[in-house]
UniProtKB/TrEMBL annotation:
GO terms for biological process: peptide transport; transmembrane transport. This is Glutathione import ATP-binding protein GsiA. It comes from Geodia barretti. Residues 1-225, 272-522 form the ABC transporter domain. InterPro entries: AAA+_ATPase, ABC_transp_ATP-bind, ABC_transporter-like_ATP-bd, ABC_transporter-like_CS, Oligopep_ABC_C, P-loop_NTPase. The keyword ATP-binding applies. Belongs to the ABC transporter superfamily. The lineage of its organism: Eukaryota, Metazoa, Porifera, Demospongiae, Heteroscleromorpha. Keywords: ATP-binding, Nucleotide-binding, Transport. Pfam families: ABC_tran, oligo_HPY. NCBIfam families: oligo_HPY (TIGR01727), PRK10419.1 (NF007739), PRK11308.1 (NF008453).
Length: 595
């Protein structure tokens, strides 16, 4: 119905995305074929119209936000070309008018410095920023229906809240219908009017959001809701044991579901000191020179103890992924020290780093672009085994690959399939298996479960925790889902615009946050219970995230801070201990002291 938001939820591979593509007539024939049914849009069965008429509807009346922001944008065209094309084609506007609209759309979805950034290419944006560009493209022609396939998967919670509030306001103000396809049940609880639950290609339960969440009737729906990490849940049971996530299948019920309250050991495995990573902005054709610098990381300090999980959270583009890549030396830092196992690897040479690769691994954020499309899943997972000489023969190789596939919830017979034959969630699990294959000491988990539905998400979290306990693994867990971070992390570091603004034990961060940015982040996390969610205090940050090309003076958060004072614009606060084992970088926090 016009003005209504419908949520479509279910496990990876159940048919959610195929349903959306079928509505848009985007399933190629062959191999796919629509064999029956009707799709009535504005009273007309669009399955019966010719493709020329369908192209006039797509973009203008029906728009779609695709699941894969990393691969949905054309890598050889600037954003200017890609955004204005749709506006000119469907609305008949001039080039200048279309460009003005495109800049306004980028500002509307929270991309700072839009006049400059519209001239850039997709690879110059983070995953979350690319998703915002996709949303801007969908909104460009004011459609009647928007189909959003995992629209906020790559976004942090504050931007997620802004984007979903924007989409929801469109449905109310303009009468736009919205279909949200997601595995985040909290998002559906907050923003959907009705919910359809899908399993194995069929709708198995439907109803209002309140009915589905307060009185689910189908056992699968009950299982989905039990699989969701929640901010309002206890982290321990009445006996003081670790609380448990409940995967629908594949894990024993007595497996510990959260990390230990304290790390396994106090010795520091990773010590990051004064880390900076500046990317030059160049000018010139024949002789390029740096005219400015993007300060992606600007003086980051933190430690990770052996056997613990440090969660790193913050908005898209704040420097989380860049921090992880600097630690692994995928980027050479501009400045600072990275002490790993007693060795400063910040300036180590390539030959020296090769010996460290087996000890340090990464699970990348985007499962599609990080998997070689010409290699089978088995070869992708098995390649590190061969490179590091961890198997003696082909039989051991095949057995180890089969074991890893099984551990991440994939059938061993899938080893011969190629990446395009898997869903987004299944591709991410292949990436997890590849990282685990060499039994590393330290893993950078860069959004490892962001593309997974909630039941598989619970399985992967359980798997990571089990491996950590068994082998004393250490994780840097980068994520924008604060509910997941709370379940898996021992301590949490909050990052904003290239700086760490708060670090504390996970209970202290969630129960007594000190920095105003942390409080805003937590208030933006939806809880999958419409009644409880409506009772919570919500802090919607105003303004845009400043550009790292020209960060604000003083505290970088002061332009958006709800408790800003005059001193905030001139004092650059260092991170200090404000409570026992609790660090914050805000001069207005009680206990900060003189500055």
């Amino acid at each position: 119905m016009a003005g209504e938001t419908l949520g479509l939820v279910g496990e990876s591979g159940c048919g959610k995305s195929v349903s959306a593509l079928s509505l848009m007539r985007l399933i190629p024939d062959p191999p796919g074929k629509t064999v029956g049914g009707e799709v009535l849009f504005d009273g007309e069965d669009i399955l019966q119209i010719d493709m020329d008429d369908m192209r006039r509807i797509r973009g203008a009346k029906m728009a779609m936000v695709f699941q894969e922001p990393m691969t949905s944008l054309n890598p050889v065209l600037t954003l200017d070309r890609q955004l204005t094309e749709t506006i000119q084609l469907h609305l008949g506007k001039s080039r200048d008018e279309a460009r003005k609209d495109a800049v306004d759309l980028l500002v509307r979805v929270g991309i700072s410095d839009a006049e400059r950034r519209i001239r850039q290419y997709p690879h110059q944006f983070s995953g979350g920023m690319r998703q915002r560009v996709m949303i801007a493209m969908a909104l460009s022609c004011n459609p009647q229906l928007i189909i959003a396939d995992e629209p906020t998967t790559a976004l942090d919670v504050t931007i997620q809240a802004q984007i979903l509030e924007l989409m929801k306001s469109l449905t109310l103000d303009l009468g736009v219908a919205l279909i949200i396809i997601t595995h985040n049940l909290g998002v559906v609880a907050r923003y959907a009017d009705r919910v359809n639950v899908m399993y194995a290609g069929k709708i198995i339960e439907r109803g209002s959001a309140l009915e589905i969440y307060t009185n689910p009737r189908h056992p699968y729906t009950v299982g989905l809701l039990d699989s969701v990490p929640r901010l309002d849940q206890r982290l321990t049971d009445q006996e003081g044991q670790a609380a448990k996530l409940v995967p629908i299948e594949g894990q024993p019920p007595d497996m510990p579901q959260t990390a230990a309250t304290t790390p396994a050991a106090e010795d520091v495995l990773l010590d990051v000191r004064g880390l900076k990573m500046y990317f030059p902005v160049t000018s010139g054709i024949l002789f390029q020179r740096a005219v400015a610098y993007i300060k992606a990381i600007d003086g980051v300090n933190f430690t990770v103890r052996r056997g613990e999980t440090l969660g790193l959270v913050g908005e898209s583009g704040c420097g989380k992924t860049t921090t992880g890549r600097c630690i692994l030396r995928l980027y050479r830092p501009t400045e600072g020290e990275i002490w790993f196992n007693g060795v400063n690897i910040a300036q180590s040479k390539t030959g020296q780093m090769r010996a460290m690769r087996r000890q340090m691994q990464i699970i990348f954020q985007d499962p599609y672009s990080s998997l070689n499309p010409r290699m089978t899943a088995g070869n992708i997972i098995g390649e590190p085994l061969a490179v590091h000489g961890l198997v003696n023969n082909k039989r051991e190789y095949r057995e180890r690959v089969a074991e890893l596939l099984n551990n991440v919830g994939l059938n061993p017979y899938m080893a011969d399939r190629f990446p395009h034959e898997f869903s987004g969630g299944q591709r991410q699990r292949i990436g997890v298996a590849r990282a685990l294959s060499v039994d590393p000491d330290f893993i950078v988990c860069d959004e490892p479960v962001s593309a997974l539905d909630v039941s598989i998400q619970a399985q992967i979290i359980n798997l990571l925790e089990d491996l950590q306990e068994r082998y004393n693994l250490t994780y840097l867990f980068i994520a924008h889902d604060l509910s997941v971070v709370r379940h898996i992390s021992d301590r949490v570091a909050v990052m904003y615009l290239g700086k760490i603004v708060e670090v504390a034990d996970r209970n202290a961060i969630y129960e007594n946050p000190q920095h105003p940015y942390t409080r805003a982040l937590l208030s933006a996390v939806p809880i999958p219970d419409p009644v409880l969610d409506a009772q919570r205090e919500r802090i919607i940050l105003t303004g845009e995230v400043p550009s790292p090309l020209n960060p604000p003076s003083g505290c970088v958060f002061h332009p958006r801070c709800p408790i800003v004072t005059d001193d905030c614009s001139r004092v650059n606060p260092e991170a200090r201990q404000v409570l026992p084992d609790h660090i914050a970088a805000c001069i207005n926090v009680p206990g900060y002291g003189p500055y």
